[in-house]
Each structure stands twice: as structure tokens, then as C-alpha cells.
Specification:
Number of helices: 29
Strand content: 5-15%
Distance between the termini: 23 Å
Helix content: 40-55%
Shape: elongated
Strand order of the largest sheet: 4-8-11-5-1-16-15
Number of strands: 18
Mean pLDDT: 76
Oligomer: single chain
């Protein structure tokens, strides 16, 4: 007897229909499409917003339907993959990013250029990555590739269940990179899609006539099992989300999440800066030599608009495109400055398109390729070609060296004049609840020690800087993350004066808003604090083209060496002082150095991350109180960490229990498949296997055979109790008895009717059980008891 599911030549297979079960294949394709879309949708949070998601639905659904349905028509099934590939190609070519090709490149060149740009944006940003046409295109390509892989794996019986591997790619990425974890909603939809696909697998590999003879489509039992399994899986996901970090906080804690090979500089650089500080990266990525007595701050970005919910660099500022060595124009005054030179190299090649430059740079030499200079903020950005080709650069810049006394004297003479500034730098965030401005005014009054406002802008700025560095605030990189006020915006600034713990982002943000409240325009610079001295030096002659730097690096001048690592990531405020322009300040205690025009007023030791207690410092102002006592603040993290450690034992125990519960169903299914194989083979053992399986079906339905019941006795008893099954039971009785007593074993004509009869008996007997009985007999099959197995082996 042959197996009809195997591709062997036979009379029956030659008459097989040319069309598979198209309804099953169509539904399975839709289930896979749902799983792909749900998995890709979990990337929301890795990529900002959801505007890219609706554009995936139509091409993904069409691709799966085309592949699944064509694969079901045996004559043209070889066209399934080419047709699906054409759908994917049409979706890619119709994307908005492909329509923006205005450079005369071929579609193939433009596609790879767009994907390369998307890779650069993803590698240089920390989630959530800002959405762009190129990133949207890359997500579409990802969804289409996953769709093709899942359909190719679903083509063959032996690889059909492996389709879950590509489906899991996007959720794994989400759990690694998203700050809030992979989430539950989209994962639940993915599970429903996968379960639906698995439930339909028996029908996708069955022809119409065979399916009609063997199964009702879809049988109520299949739907019931599918519903219960889906509910159990989704419930498990929700339960697991209570303690497993991958669902609620990402697989890695803040500061240890994976990032691209490039230095991250996304549109929320302040959040990114905190991540870099907490990662504690000590490996230097930049070496520079400077002629200045003090190493400069290196700036990569400037945040000007502090009125939005999310503070990020402005993209609409005036800029110029340059090529190679360039003297740039900047909006600053050179009053009270000395000219300096800096030579910058990258030990492992530069990977950051944002060039770290001193604040008042005016000449850049060594860039190989195109680059962009934003005049208002003095920020330089390299093109992709320049990024890979540039090995080292030399920069001429101005270092501010004036004193407060000189500024006040010139101001009294009325001799100071300088550039003006936009009113944007003085705007405060919208304060609908009228809570921010009173807080800023109250904090300013505390900063002005004598209660009276200083006379000059520089004196006000120095008073604010001294207030933050006076010892009333503590430097801490983890307290803001733990207490929920990390990053920078108006809400963060409102929390910071009460908690009085934070890192450079919080000090710079608070000082910038306090300066605006005091009438001084402000902005926030992001980049790197002065590097760590290496003790090495080079001569001025080594910087290349010394004639360009003859005013700043005369022959014989020594340039001292410094290195920069992730530990120097920093943010600081820049205030616009009338007559001087934009000048930087340093309010963060224990970081960098205070400028010469606003020297530190107190020499008390500044708290550091290693020594400062991560508890709020009590304010001297009686009208505002800390949010919690020091003891409560100190105890809470320890308790939560211990509880989290203990909770990991629960999922381990659940996995072990689940593995034990799977043993019974696995053994029962293995034994059943071996018996069905013997029945199909038509050997003398076929009747014994049929009788053993009938006894097992009865035992699992709580209707076991008696100790001395024969084949005829048992089938007659079941026929009396279940008259509807009498024909099937009689058919099995005849086949078994003829084999046992007359040596007339089952033949080819008996295989399908006997198997159909056995299947119907199993369905009807299990239908009379309650849901609880079905569950218990499924997990612990009574047919596996040793006494029953002994009876099954006997005649």
C-alpha cells in the first residue's frame, strides 16, 4: 500500500487534480502577510512615527497572495517566485524615494545610493530614528525580503515551520533597540498570524479531492484548538511582559543598547548624550593637538528652539556648501580673543559626519570632498565621500580670553557693539499651567545670592553658573533615568531644580531657560568636553601648509596632544552677551572648566558621579520640597533590583513545566504516526496497528476496552452507545478480524476508507468530552499507561 502524500507513481496519483486547496493557500498567505506586517510594525519606536506603515500593507498582502495562489496551481507553480519578485520590484520602484532621483543615475544606482543613505542615517542615530524617505524605503525592502523568505520556506513541507525565523527578525530588533521594549500588541498579532498559518498547513499541502475525502475545511475542532492556543499564547505574552525586560524596557538597559558603528548624532542628541555617558566608553576615537593653553570644547550640534516638546537641532538654518580647504564666515565677535590652531586625527578613521570643531573656528583645512557649513551655529557636516576620504584636518579658531572687568569697563564706555540675534533665542516654552516661569523666577532669585538682580548680562550669567557649581547640585548620570526626567525639555527642567541631580544635559538645559527668563538669549551646544592630555606634542611645521596658519602656529610652536572618548560627551549653554556675541559657559560641576570671563566663585569640591549620593539635596527655599526622603530614594532601587532578579526564576520554572507537559502529547503523536504508517504500508502488522490505535482512541476518550474484551465485543459495545458510528466500527472490526483469524490483510482499497473511519471515530468520541477532559487527556494521554500498551500488543 502506498502513501498518497508521497510523490511516487501510482494509479491514484496519476489522477490527482492539478489544483491544490486554493482557499487554504489563500488564507495561509493572508496569515503570513499579517505576521510580516505585525512584525514590521513593531519597529515603531525604532523609527519615529508610523507614517511609513500604511505604505507596506498593500504590497505585502499582494505579494503573499500572488505567491500562495500561484503555488497552488501545479501547472504554473514555478511562476510563483518570479511573480512575487515582480510585485516586490514594482513596490520598490513606485516608492517616493525612488521618484526623487534628480541626479541622472540609473534606477539601480539610485536604489543602492538610497539604501546606503538610509544605512548612514540609521547608524548615526539612536532610536527613535527620524523618519525619512530613505529609511521608509529600507523598511519596505525589509518587509518585502522577509515576505519572500517566509513564502519560500512555506513552499516545502520540511521547511514550512521555519518561516517563523525571518518573521522574528523585526521584533528582535525592536526588543534590542527600543527604549520601551518590543511591546505586546504587535507581537500578539504576529502570534495570531503564525498560529493561523500553522493551523492551515495540513490543508495547504492537500489537493481538493483528497481534502474533501479526508477533512472538512475548516473543522470545528481545528478552529477551537486554534482559538484556545491563540488565547493562551497572547495571555502568556501579557503575563511575561510583567517581568521580562524585552517586552517593557528593551533587552538591554539604557546606556548599553546596541548602536551603529558610527557615532550617534540623531535629532534628539541630548537623549543620545546621556546614553553615551552611561555606556562609559573609554576607547579614544579622536586625537588632536592644539596650540592653546587650555584644550577647547568641540561642538557638533547646536539646539536653538527650546519651545518644542522635543528639543532638536534646527534643519532650516542658512548654510553654504564647500569643497576642500575653506575659510568660513561665522557670526561672532573676535574681541578679546587669541588665535589658535588645532590638528585633528582619527586613529580608526572618522565615522561621524558631524565634524567636532572648536566654538569660534574660521578656517578648515584637510577635508577631502564636499561639506556643509551652517553659518548661524558654526556646525560642519561632511558628505559621504568626504567622510570616508578625510583622514585628518587642521583648524584655525579664536579662543576667548577677556576678563569680566574688561567687559564691564567697555560696557560703561558704551564702546561695545556687535551682531544682533533673533528673538527665537529668547522664547520660553509654552506654559499653559503657569508653572515653569514661576519656577525659573524662583530659582533665579535663589541664584542671585543677595536677592537683587546683577547689573550686567555677564554678571547674571556668572551668577547662574556659580549657583549650579556651588555644591547645591550633584552630578549623576543615572538618577534622571531612574526617576523619569532624563533628556531635555520643559518638563525635565521643571523636575531638575527639585531633584538637584543630573548630568550635563540637565545643567545646560536649566541654565539656558533661566538665562532666557533673565532676558539673555541662549542656546545649547552639544559635543565634547576638553580631551584627556596624552603628554605628547608635535611641532607647528607638522600640521601641513604652515603658511595658512602663520599667524597662529609660528615655526617652533608646540601643539599639545589630547584624546577624546565617549566619556567626554558633553552639553553646555551658550549665551548671547551684547557686544561679544555667543559665548559658552560651564554650569556642570566637575566637568570641563569655567571660562576666564566667568571664573568659578567657590572652590568647594564638586560632587562627582562616584562620590555624590544619588538622593535629592534639600533646597533652602521653603516653598518647594523634595519628592522623597533620602532613605526612600536609596532603598527603592535596591529593592526593585532584587525583586527583578528573583522574578527571573519564574519564567525558567514555566519553561521547565511547559517542557514536561509536552512530553505526553509528543509521545502519543509519535506512536500514532508510526501506527498510521504501518496501516498505509498494508503489511500483516497493519491490522494489529489499527486495533492498537482504536484502543488508544477509546482510552483517550474515557472509553477504554475491558480487560478481556475482544475486537468484536469492544466495537459492538461502542456501536450500542454511539449508533452513528456503527458503520465505521463495523468496518474496522471486519478488517481486524479478517487479518487476525483469516490471514486476509488490508489492501490498497482498504487504506483510505479505514483511515477515514478511524478519524471519524476519534472526532465523535472526543466531542462527547468536556473542555477540561480534552485538555487533561491531551496533556496526559491515558493510552500511554503500561497496562493498555500490553493489551494493544496482544490479540
Amino acid at each position: 500500500m502506498t502513501n498518497p502524500s508521497e510523490a511516487q507513481p501510482s494509479v491514484e496519483s496519476s489522477r490527482a487534480p492539478a489544483i491544490d486547496h486554493l482557499l487554504a493557500r489563500g488564507l495561509a498567505a493572508l496569515c503570513l502577510a499579517l505576521a510580516v506586517l505585525a512584525g514590521t510594525a513593531s519597529l515603531t519606536g525604532v523609527v519615529e512615527g508610523t507614517s511609513w506603515l500604511p505604505y507596506l500593507i498593500f504590497p505585502v498582502v499582494v505579494l503573499h497572495l500572488v505567491y500562495g495562489l500561484i503555488r497552488g496551481i501545479r501547472v504554473i507553480r514555478w511562476l510563483a517566485l518570479p511573480a512575487a519578485a515582480l510585485v516586490a520590484l514594482a513596490a520598490v520602484m513606485g516608492h517616493d524615494a525612488m521618484d526623487s532621483n534628480t541626479y541622472g543615475l540609473s534606477p539601480m544606482q539610485w536604489f543602492f545610493s538610497s539604501i546606503s543613505e538610509a544605512g548612514l542615517q540609521l547608524a548615526t542615530q539612536v532610536p527613535p530614528v527620524a523618519s525619512s524617505a530613505y529609511i521608509d524605503l529600507s523598511i519596505l525592502v525589509l518587509a518585502l525580503v522577509v515576505s519572500l523568505l517566509t513564502q519560500i520556506l512555506a513552499t516545502f513541507r520540511r521547511t514550512a515551520l521555519l518561516a517563523v525565523i525571518p518573521l522574528s527578525f523585526a521584533p528582535i530588533v525592536a526588543s534590542l533597540f527600543k527604549q520601551e521594549g518590543a511591546g505586546i500588541g504587535f507581537l500578539a498579532l504576529l502570534v495570531v498570524g503564525v498560529l493561523g498559518y500553522v493551523a492551515l498547513l495540513p490543508y495547504t499541502f492537500t489537493s481538493v479531492s483528497q481534502g474533501a475525502a479526508q477533512h472538512k475545511f475548516p473543522p470545528a475542532k481545528t478552529l477551537g484548538v486554534f482559538g484556545i492556543t491563540a488565547l493562551a499564547c497572547i495571555s502568556s505574552l501579557f503575563a511575561a511582559s510583567l517581568w521580562m525586560p524585552g517586552f517593557r524596557a528593551g533587552m538591554f538597559p539604557e546606556g548599553k543598547r546596541p548602536s551603529g558603528e558610527l557615532l550617534a548624532n540623531n535629532v534628539d542628541p541630548l537623549i543620545n548624550l546621556g546614553r553615551d555617558l552611561r555606556s562609559n566608553g573609554k576607547k579614544p576615537f579622536l586625537t588632536y593637538y592644539t596650540s592653546a593653553d587650555q584644550a577647547p570644547y568641540l561642538r557638533t550640534q547646536v539646539i536653538t528652539d527650546l519651545t518644542q516638546q522635543r528639543w532638536e537641532p534646527s534643519e532650516n538654518l542658512f548654510y553654504s556648501d564647500y569643497y576642500g580647504d575653506t575659510a568660513v564666515t561665522s557670526d561672532y565677535s573676535s574681541f578679546g580673543s587669541s588665535e589658535q590652531v588645532l590638528r585633528m586625527t582619527w586613529p580608526n578613521n572618522n565615522t561621524n559626519p558631524l565634524l567636532p570643531l572648536p566654538t569660534q573656528s574660521y578656517f578648515v583645512q584637510g577635508i577631502q570632498g564636499d561639506w556643509r557649513w551652517t553659518h548661524e551655529t558654526s556646525v560642519a557636516r561632511l558628505s559621504g565621500d568626504a567622510l570616508s576620504a578625510t583622514k585628518d584636518i587642521s583648524v584655525a579658531y579664536e579662543q576667548l580670553q577677556f576678563t569680566p572687568e574688561l567687559v564691564e569697563e567697555l560696557a560703561g564706555w558704551g564702546a561695545m557693539s556687535g551682531p544682533s540675534v533673533s528673538s527665537e533665542y529668547s522664547r520660553l516654552p509654552t506654559d499653559e499651567e503657569n508653572s515653569l516661569r514661576p519656577l525659573l523666577r524662583e530659582t533665579l532669585d535663589e541664584a542671585y545670592a543677595d536677592g537683587a538682580s546683577p547689573d550686567t548680562e555677564l554678571a547674571k550669567a556668572a551668577a547662574i553658573q556659580d549657583f549650579f557649581r556651588s555644591g547645591k547640585f550633584a552630578y549623576s548620570e543615572r538618577t534622571p533615568l531612574r526617576e523619569g526626567y532624563d533628556g531635555a525639555n520643559a518638563q525635565v527642567v521643571e523636575a531638575f531644580p527639585d531633584r538637584r541631580q543630573g548630568y550635563c544635559v540637565h545643567f545646560a538645559s536649566a541654565m539656558a531657560l533661566m538665562a532666557r527668563e533673565a532676558g539673555i538669549p541662549s542656546r545649547i551646544a552639544v559635543g565634547y568636553a576638553p580631551g584627556v592630555a596624552t603628554g605628547e606634542s608635535i611641532n607647528a611645521e607638522e600640521i601641513g601648509s604652515p603658511q595658512r596658519f602663520e599667524r597662529t602656529a609660528k615655526p617652533g610652536t608646540k601643539l599639545e596632544g589630547y584624546t577624546v572618548s565617549g566619556q567626554q560627551a558633553h552639553a553646555w549653554p551658550e549665551l548671547f552677551i551684547t557686544g561679544l556675541g555667543w559665548v559658552p559657559f560651564e554650569p556642570t560641576p566637575g566637568r570641563g572648566y569655567t571660562p576666564s570671563y566667568a571664573p568659578e566663585a567657590t572652590r568647594s569640591a564638586a560632587p562627582s558621579e562616584s562620590t555624590a549620593p544619588e538622593v535629592p539635596t534639600t533646597r533652602s527655599t521653603p516653598t518647594r520640597t523634595p519628592s522623597a526622603t533620602p532613605s526612600a530614594q536609596a532603598a527603592t532601587p535596591q529593592t526593585s533590583e532584587q525583586g527583578a532578579t528573583n522574578l527571573w526564576l519564574l519564567p525558567v520554572a514555566l519553561v521547565l513545566i511547559g517542557a514536561v507537559l509536552c512530553i505526553g502529547p509528543w509521545r502519543r503523536n509519535r506512536i500514532r504516526q508510526e501506527r498510521l504508517k504501518q496501516i498505509r504500508a498494508g503489511t500483516p502488522e497493519a491490522a494489529q496497528a489499527l486495533w492498537a490505535e482504536l484502543l488508544s482512541v477509546g482510552a483517550d476518550a474515557k472509553l477504554p476496552a475491558g480487560t478481556h474484551e475482544s475486537v468484536g465485543d469492544y466495537t459492538v459495545r461502542l456501536s450500542v452507545d454511539y449508533p452513528a458510528l456503527a458503520p465505521e466500527l463495523q468496518q474496522i472490526q471486519q478488517v481486524v478480524e479478517q487479518s487476525f483469524y483469516a490471514d486476509r490483510h488490508p489492501g490498497e482499497t482498504d487504506e483510505v476508507p479505514v483511515l477515514n473511519a478511524l478519524h471519524r471515530i476519534q472526532e465523535q468520541l472526543r466531542a462527547q468530552l468536556s473542555v477540561w477532559q480534552r485538555l487533561t487527556t491531551f496533556l496526559v494521554p491515558p493510552s500511554l499507561r503500561s497496562g493498555l500498551r500490553d493489551k494493544q500488543r496482544s490479540r
